[in-house]
Amino acid sequence: MRLIHVLVLGFVALHVFESNAQLIPQDEVKVLQAISDKLENLNWTVTEHSCAEDGGFGDRINIRNDTVRNVSCDCNFQNNTVCHVDSIFLKAQNIAGVFPSEFGNLTHLKVLDLTRNYINGSLPKSFPPNATLTNLLLLGNRLSGPIPSEIGDIANLEELVLDCNQLEGPLPSSLGNLSNLKRLLLSANNFTGTIPETFGKLENLTDFRIDGSSLSGPIPSFIGNWTKLNRLDLQGTNMEGPIPSTISQLKLLTNLRITDLKGSATMNFPDLEELKNMERLELRNCLIKGDIPDYIAQMSYLDTLDLSFNMLTGPVPDFIPNLGKLDYLFLTNNSLSGEIQDWILSFKHNIDLSYNNFTKSSASSCQLSDVNLASSHSSSSVATTASTFCLKRNLPCAGQPQYKSLFINCGGGEGEFEGNNYVGDLHLNGISNFDLRSEEQWAYSSTGVFMGNYSANYVAENVFSLNISGPEYYQNARLSPMSLNYYGLCMPNGNYKVKLHFAEIMYSDDQTYRSLGRRIFDVSVQGFRYLQDFNIVEEAGGVGKGITKEFDVDVHDGTLEIHLYWAGKGTTSIPDRGVYGPLISAIEMIPNFENPSKGLSAGVIAGIVAASCGFVILILVVLWKMGLLCRKDTTDRELLDMKTGYYSLRQIKGATNNFDPANKIGEGGFGPVYKGVLSDGDVIAVKQLSSKSKQGNREFVNEIGMISALQHPNLVKLYGCCIEGNQLLLIYEYMENNSLARALFGEEEQKLHLDWPTRMKICVGIARGLAYLHEESRLKIVHRDIKATNVLLDRDLNAKISDFGLAKLDEEENTHISTRIAGTIGYMAPEYAMRGYLTDKADVYSFGVVALEIVSGKSNTKYRPKEEFVYLLDWAYVLQEQGNLLELVDPSLGSKYSQEEAMRMLSLALLCTNPSP
């Protein structure tokens, strides 16, 4: 009896235990197992008892850690007997595979955090509208495609984090229905279009970020509805200013980061007076003008103030030292003036005032630990000495230029690589730093602090032990979070070969999230941006692979400057926070000329120079007495201020054989153009302005000012000028193959056989030249007379745009009515020809006509296949309607061309010329 009693009690106890067991429903177990089966490295073994202990399974650590593997359950169902998974944290687990749609079948899931993994595929549409999901975090994966509109139906969603993926397409307007949404992070994707108007309804937002996308259009004024916002990031997009006045309504804002706005219209400093809780204020490269406002003094919590690359004027405000929490002040590349106060020189925190126009300072050097003063003063305000030259614009040489090549191992030590001796560059600082190596005649300037990781290094190493082939300098690099300049100092004027070596060494080469970073930055040499949106990994074909970019540049004032700039694009938190910005491994600067002083001692050179100067002065005095030198009027002073090369009339006459008609090679916008050979053998082109020109010297000065300020591989280079008596001359580089018009439809003996790749290269070259004029140069310029005769071809048949005599400067307005129509009939946009309505789209129209001529080999104004067609363009539209557009292709090409490329080029040409594209 006792044994039976014990068995009965045991059975009852077992029954009670089983009846109180906390079990996951079988259908949910199947869903979890299906998810595990689809994702590599997850390796779940889920049973109905997985939540029985501690309400979940996986790691028992703080979910805020960067690496987490944890699933938690809510077991408060059916008298605490049933459990449902309510949160999944799989952070930095290197999980791979296609995003499982089964996540949408977890009907009680509130939090799904898959941050930093290797998951690909598209976002699922499977989350039901009544889903309990409140937090969806997918930062740092390989998700692609558009955001499904169904995401906007998850009514309970409070946090949507999709940063650092490969999502694309327009943002769905349905996201504006997420009335509970607090955090919306969309940075480092490929979104296009504009921010939907429906986003104005997201009145509970506290954090909105969309850095580094291709979103365009103006910053919407409805951001003023986001009155609960703490952080707003709009860095590196294609959006345009001005910053809307409604931003003043965001009184809870603590972080505001808006950078690199597009467009050409300047704006006053936005009204942020009520935003007194600001901790980080970044308004970089936003075309802001005027003084720094006094109300910033009320932002007592301000830690970082970045107003660099704007057009700010006036002095550095005296209230700056009173901002007790301020650690970082970046004001580089503005037009600040006045005196640099002593408090700045003794500032205990980081401050960058480089590239401004200060007129007075007690600074005796640029070598200050936390204050960057490189190129901070106007040229006339500081003496050029060995210690203060770096305060002046362009860092002029304080001594004698030295003929030498320069090799820098960026971020590494000195050493011999490939037969060249590289100097070391191991300085670890870079927040607001100017480092001068006077004995080696070079320097670097670095600006910025890494977001999310203030302690990040400015020197990178091969931390993932990548197998890197090539020179050892690829094992290290210098990097910067914003702006990095290298200078070759005291270099003889002339042409140099610049080689920039890059290798990405901060990402891994495996199939983990550490390989998913995208570093994107711009590269300029001598003020010209050669590389925009440069991505080392894409160019080199992978991480740990070296890539070299070479440029031929001119040095005119003894300094060769290389500038690398982060424009807010790419990822900023892969593999860790603060990994982004320019990175460079090594630099070479090599003269493309021989040492002009070889074999002569310094004393002999000095004697020759002194004697020559005395003789020249004597000759000038005699000529002035004889009245043979023109007076120094306003025009001459303007020319001197431009620092354009000056040639004497005697030189030019000798070069052109006294303007011999046999040397005439064309007719420019103002007069004839002659070929000339200078005494040193250099071949030049001389444009002789017509004496009948009504514009005269003033127009001449305008042309010099514009052309001398512009340097681009697809623009004709201006060497200098000559003004003597009534002679107004421009001296250009000589273009061996004359004009595109002569190459395409000149006389038979003048025409060139242009194969299809060459025609494509010419089209692309013209487009790049126009893109520089319209968007990339400091001044926005409309050419107004793009045609085949104004496109010249060099020895290698590279296209270069010429004749800026009719160009219209358009510095602040996108559109305007021109008072004087200029251009050529047949190439002029209709709105410009008929109404004088001028925008850069007039050049786009003209480009379309020229592209049509390049493909067809026929002149738009001279070819008439039928009497009823005035222009080739008219015939092209008819052929397009008939579906026979390829009939336009130049018959001389035969079948040696790509029909697909030809069709694309012709379609583009007609799109450019379409009044309603």
Automatic annotation (TrEMBL):
It comes from the Eukaryota. Residues 1-21 form the signal peptide. GO terms for molecular function: ATP binding; protein serine/threonine kinase activity. Its EC number is 2.7.11.1. Keywords: ATP-binding, Glycoprotein, Kinase, Leucine-rich repeat, Membrane, Nucleotide-binding, Phosphoprotein, Receptor, Repeat, Serine/threonine-protein kinase, Signal, Transferase, Transmembrane, Transmembrane helix. It is a single-pass type I membrane protein. This is non-specific serine/threonine protein kinase.
